[in-house]
């Protein structure tokens, strides 16, 4: 009688192996999709990080240029600096005598 009961257990659910195979196939497909998505996102993250670093470098260069230009603007507000520039271009104040300096080899 024990033999009859064990043989009945295997034949009572003949589709259970098929359901397990289907479930296993579903799990494998889901894991494959999850891994593909993970690697795809990692690649996109790397590209985005490189773009961010390039933009950060560009921003640093722009800030340095802005600082340089701000220093020039501040210097142009100084009347002594403006006189110095004018003198380099040959302008003199009324009553001043221009002095020309020549090199010794000339």
Element string (H = helix, E = strand): HHH
The total beta strand count reads 0
- Globally, the shape reads rod-shaped
Beta percentage is under 5%
Tell me about the largest β-sheet.
none
Q: What value does the average pLDDT take?
A: 86
Rg of Cα set: 42 Å
Query: Percentage of helical residues?
Result: over 70%
Q: What is the overall number of helices?
A: 3
Report how far the terminal alpha carbons are from each other.
Answer: 129 Å
Sequence stretches where pLDDT stays below 50 over 5 or more residues: none
Structural class: mainly alpha
Write up what this structure looks like.
With 106 residues, this protein is an all-alpha fold. The protein has three helices and no strands. It has helices spanning 2-12, 16-76, 79-88. The radius of gyration is 42 Å and the shape is rod-shaped. The mean pLDDT is 86.
Summarize the helices and strands and which ones pair or pack:
Layout: H1 2-12, H2 16-76, H3 79-88
Please give a quick description of this structure.
The protein has 106 residues and is mainly alpha-helical. The chain has helices at residues 2-12, 16-76, 79-88.
Please describe the structure with a list of short key phrases separated by commas or semicolons.
106 residues; mainly alpha; 3 helices; 0% strand; rod-shaped
């Amino acid at each position: 009688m024990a033999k009859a009961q064990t043989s009945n257990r295997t034949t009572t659910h003949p589709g259970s192996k098929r359901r397990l195979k289907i479930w296993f196939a579903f799990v494998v497909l889901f894991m494959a999709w999850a891994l593909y998505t993970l690697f795809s996102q990692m690649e996109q993250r790397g590209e985005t990080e490189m773009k961010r670093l390039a933009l950060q470098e560009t921003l640093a260069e722009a800030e340095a240029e802005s600082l340089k230009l701000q220093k020039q603007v501040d210097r142009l507000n100084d009347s002594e600096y403006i006189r110095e520039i004018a003198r380099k271009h040959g302008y003199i104040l009324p009553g001043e005598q221009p002095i020309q300096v020549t090199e010794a080899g000339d």
